[in-house]
Task: inverse folding
C-alpha cells in the first residue's frame, strides 16, 4: 500500500472532523489540523505501530501578514519505519498566538519551539523552558514577523561603549 | 655560523631605544584569534604548513587576551557578540592593535540585517582593514605585514599622555 | 578549610573518589560552582557559549546559549530573489560550502520544477563529496586538537589545502565558492580539475593511514574518548540528532541512501554504522565516511558523462555569458531573471540532503513571486547541539571539550 494513502487513511479515520486539509505538492504530503488537536495527532502518529513517526525534524511558523489568521505553525516529522517525512500544519485562529507544545512527545522540539518563539513570538503552552534562542534577553521584537524591518529598529540592540 | 663569524672584533651598533623596541615588538606580534565565523578557518589556514604565519613571528596564537597584543577579529560580529569582543579587547594589555579581517567586520559586508554590526569600527579602534569574504590567507599575511610596518614606526612618545581607555566594561 | 583537609585525610573516601570518577564530593566547597565557557573559547568551535554548574569537577548541569552568530539569514532570504541567496548558503556551514550550494539549488529546483543536465548533476556530486572530505578532515583535526593533539590539525589542513586548490580551479574561490546555479553549475569541470581530484585521491589514502597511526596508536587519545559521552539510539532519535552522530549511535540512516537525490543510486557505497555511541565511535565514524567518500569519488570521476552543464530553460535558468553579450533574447531573459526572479508556483516544499554535519533541509514557502515568502533552514549543527545537556551531565570538565569536538558543530549554521 502506498505510504501516503496509508497515512491519510489512518489519520482520517481517527481525526476525521479535525483534519482541515490534505495537500500533496511536489510529492510532499501535508496535513492541516485544528490547533487544539496537534498533541493528540502527534501522539497518534508517534505511537501507532504502523507509522512510528519517532523524530521531529523541524518546527517553524509562517507569518501570512495580511490574512486574518496570521500565523501557521509547521511541523516536519520523520518516520524511519516508513522512510517518510510528513508535514503538519496548524493555523492559529485567535489573538492569543499560542499553541500546545509538542516537547512531551519529541524532545527535539524543545529548541525548535524556542526558536519559533524567538522569531515569531508564538507562545508554546507547557514548554519547559520558553526563552529566546538567538536574540539577547530583553530584546522586545520578533524579527521574522513581516512587520519587522530587515535592518532592524535603531536602538533596539545596544552597542558596547565606544572606544576612546 | 651566525653574525659573530663575520665580526672580526667586538662589534657595536648605535641606535635609538625606540627603534630597537619597535623592531622587537613588530617581529613578535602575538595574535588573539577572535575567530567568529568563516574567516576563522582562513585564519587557521594562514597558520597551516602552506602559508605558515610563523615566518612573520605570529604563530603564537593565544586564546587568552592577557597575553596578546594583536586582536584579529575574524568573522561577522553581531550585536550580541559585540559586547564580548569589546570586553575581550579591554582585557588586552597596552599597547594593542586590531585587524578587521574580512568584509563583515570591516563594513557588515553582505549582511545588511537587523542583528549584524555594520562595521566593528563603531565600537573598536581598528588599525588594518582586510578585504575579501573571506580574505585569502595571503591577504591576512599582507595585513599582518602592513601592521608590522605601522608598529615599526611607533615611538615611545606615542604611548605617553595617552588617555586611559575606559575600563568600565572590563571591571563589571 | 577543616572540611577539605578532612576529606583529603580520609583514605577510604579518597579511594572511592579514585575508583569512581563520576562520584561527587558532597559539598566540596559547600557550594556548587557556576562557570562560563565561551563564547570566546578555543574548544567551542566558534561562538558557542556554555554555562556549567559544577560540583568539584563533575558537571551537574549545562546550558548551551546560542545566537552569538545569528545573522538573520531567514529574514534576508525573504528580501532577496532565489538566485541572490546562493552566495549566502556558502556561509552557513562554512566547512562544507559546496554541499550547501548543492543542497540549496536542489531545493529550489524541486520547488520550481527544473532539472539540471546529467553532467551538471555529476559535477555536483563530485564537489559535494570533495567538500565532505574537507569538512571531515577539519572535524577530525580540530577534534584531535581539542583533546590535545595539535599535530593533527596541521596534517589535516595540509590535505584540505589540496581540495581548496581544486575548488580554486573550479569556482575561482578557494573557500566561499558559490559554484552552483539554479539549473546547473557555474562553470564546467575541465580535465585539469579532474586530474587534480585524481591526484588528491591517490594522496589521501596514505595520509589517512598516517593519521590513524598517529591517533589510534595513542593511548591518551583513546582513554580520553572511549566510553565518554555515550548517546543511546533512542535518545539520538528523540533529540533529533542527524548525520554521523546519529549513525555512530547505531541508526543506519543516510539521506543519500534513504531518499537518493542526484545520482547516488548509481554509485556503490556503504554506510558505516557504529553502535557504541561514544566519542571514539564518532571519531571512527568520520574517518570511515571519509574513506567511503573517496570511494564514491573514484567511481564518479570514471563515470562522469559529457554534455551541457546548464539546463535549457530560458525563463528560469540563466543563459551563458557569451550569449548574453551577443543575443538580444538572452539579454532580456537574463535581465528578467536577475531583476524579477524565477517565479516558482505557489506552494511549499521541503528538501533535504546529507551534509557532512547531518541532514540539511530547506523549507520554502512560495507565493508565486520572485522572492521566497519564507525560507526555513533546518541545520544539522543546531539539532546536534541539543544533545550537549544530555551528554555532558555527570561528565568531567575535560570531557565537555571532547564531547563538543566529537559532535562537530559549526556555529554559522547553528545560529543562522
Result:
Amino acid at each position: 500500500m502506498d505510504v501516503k494513502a496509508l497515512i491519510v487513511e489512518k489519520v482520517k479515520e481517527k481525526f476525521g472532523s479535525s483534519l482541515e486539509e490534505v495537500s500533496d505538492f511536489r510529492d510532499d504530503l501535508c496535513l492541516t489540523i485544528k490547533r487544539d488537536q496537534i498533541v493528540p495527532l502527534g501522539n497518534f502518529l508517534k505511537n501507532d505501530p504502523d507509522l512510528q513517526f519517532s523524530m521531529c525534524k523541524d518546527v517553524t511558523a509562517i507569518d501570512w501578514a495580511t490574512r486574518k489568521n496570521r500565523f501557521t505553525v509547521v511541523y516536519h516529522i520523520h518516520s524511519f519505519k516508513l522512510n517518510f517525512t510528513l508535514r503538519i500544519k496548524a493555523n492559529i485562529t485567535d489573538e492569543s498566538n499560542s499553541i500546545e507544545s509538542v516537547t512531551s512527545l519529541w524532545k527535539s522540539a524543545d529548541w525548535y519551539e524556542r526558536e519559533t518563539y524567538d522569531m515569531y513570538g508564538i507562545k508554546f503552552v507547557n514548554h519547559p523552558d520558553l526563552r529566546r534562542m538567538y536574540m539577547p534577553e530583553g530584546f522586545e521584537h520578533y524579527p521574522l514577523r513581516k512587520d519587522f524591518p530587515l535592518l532592524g529598529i535603531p536602538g533596539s540592540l545596544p552597542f558596547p561603549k565606544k572606544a576612546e | 655560523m651566525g653574525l659573530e663569524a663575520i665580526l672580526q672584533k667586538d662589534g657595536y651598533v648605535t641606535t635609538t631605544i625606540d627603534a630597537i623596541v619597535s623592531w622587537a615588538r613588530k617581529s613578535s606580534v602575538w595574535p588573539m584569534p577572535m575567530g567568529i565565523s568563516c574567516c576563522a578557518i582562513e585564519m587557521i589556514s594562514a597558520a597551516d604548513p602552506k602559508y605558515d604565519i610563523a615566518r612573520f613571528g605570529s604563530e603564537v596564537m593565544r586564546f587568552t587576551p592577557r597575553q596578546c597584543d594583536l586582536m584579529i577579529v575574524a568573522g561577522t560580529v553581531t550585536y550580541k557578540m559585540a559586547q564580548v569582543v569589546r570586553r575581550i579587547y579591554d582585557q588586552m594589555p597596552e599597547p594593542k592593535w586590531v585587524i578587521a579581517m574580512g568584509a563583515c567586520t570591516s563594513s557588515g559586508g553582505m549582511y545588511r540585517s537587523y542583528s549584524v554590526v555594520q562595521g566593528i569600527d563603531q565600537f573598536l579602534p581598528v588599525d588594518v582593514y582586510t578585504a575579501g569574504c573571506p580574505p585569502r590567507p595571503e591577504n591576512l599575511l599582507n595585513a599582518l605585514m602592513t601592521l608590522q610596518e605601522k608598529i615599526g614606526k611607533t615611538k615611545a612618545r606615542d604611548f605617553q599622555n595617552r588617555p586611559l581607555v575606559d575600563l568600565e566594561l572590563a571591571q563589571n | 578549610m577543616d572540611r577539605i583537609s578532612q576529606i583529603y585525610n580520609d583514605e577510604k573516601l579518597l579511594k572511592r573518589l579514585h575508583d569512581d570518577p563520576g562520584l561527587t564530593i558532597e559539598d566540596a566547597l559547600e557550594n556548587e560552582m557556576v562557570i562560563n565557557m565561551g563564547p570566546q573559547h578555543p574548544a567551542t568551535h566558534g561562538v558557542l557559549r556554555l554555562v556549567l554548574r559544577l560540583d568539584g569537577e563533575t558537571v551537574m548541569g549545562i546550558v548551551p546559549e546560542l545566537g552569538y552568530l545569528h545573522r538573520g539569514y531567514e529574514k534576508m532570504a525573504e528580501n532577496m530573489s532565489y538566485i541572490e541567496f546562493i552566495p549566502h548558503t556558502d556561509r552557513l556551514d562554512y566547512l562544507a560550502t559546496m554541499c550547501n550550494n548543492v543542497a540549496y539549488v536542489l531545493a529550489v529546483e524541486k520547488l520550481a520544477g527544473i532539472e539540471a543536465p546529467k553532467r551538471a548533476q555529476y559535477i555536483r556530486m563530485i564537489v559535494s563529496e570533495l567538500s565532505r572530505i574537507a569538512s571531515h578532515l577539519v572535524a577530525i583535526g580540530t577534534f584531535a586538537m581539542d583533546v590535545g593533539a595539535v599535530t593533527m590539525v596541521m596534517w589535516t589542513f595540509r590535505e584540505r589545502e589540496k581540495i581548496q586548490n581544486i575548488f580554486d580551479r573550479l569556482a575561482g574561490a578557494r573557500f566561499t565558492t558559490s559554484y552552483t546555479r539554479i539549473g546547473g553549475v557555474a562553470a564546467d569541470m575541465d580535465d585539469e580539475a579532474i586530474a587534480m581530484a585524481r591526484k588528491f585521491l591517490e594522496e589521501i589514502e596514505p595520509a589517512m593511514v598516517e593519521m590513524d597511526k598517529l591517533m589510534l596508536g595513542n593511548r591518551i587519545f583513546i582513554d580520553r574518548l572511549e566510553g565518554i559521552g555515550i548517546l543511546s539510539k533512542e535518545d539520538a532519535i528523540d533529540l533529533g540528532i542527524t548525520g554521523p552522530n546519529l549513525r555512530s549511535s547505531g541508526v543506519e540512516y543516510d539521506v543519500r541512501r534513504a531518499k537518493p537525490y542526484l545520482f547516488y543510486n548509481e554509485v556503490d557505497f556503504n554506510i558505516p554504522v557504529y553502535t557504541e555511541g561514544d566519542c571514539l565511535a564518532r571519531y571512527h565514524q568520520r574517518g570511515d565516511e571519509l574513506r567511503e567518500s573517496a570511494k564514491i569519488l573514484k567511481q564518479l570521476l570514471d563515470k562522469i558523462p559529457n554534455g551541457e552543464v546548464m539546463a535549457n530553460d530560458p525563463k528560469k535558468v540563466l543563459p551563458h555569458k557569451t550569449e548574453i553579450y551577443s543575443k538580444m533574447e538572452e539579454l532580456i531573459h537574463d535581465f528578467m531573471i536577475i531583476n524579477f526572479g524565477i517565479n516558482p508556483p505557489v506552494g511549499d516544499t521541503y528538501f533535504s540532503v546529507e551534509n557532512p554535519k547531518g541532514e540539511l533541509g530547506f523549507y520554502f514557502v512560495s507565493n508565486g513571486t520572485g522572492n521566497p515568502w519564507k525560507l526555513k533552514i533546518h541545520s544539522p549543527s543546531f539539532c546536534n547541539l541539543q544533545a550537549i545537556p544530555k551528554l555532558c551531565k555527570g561528565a568531567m570538565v575535560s570531557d565537555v571539550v571532547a564531547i563538543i569536538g566529537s559532535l562537530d558543530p559549526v556555529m554559522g549554521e547553528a545560529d543562522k
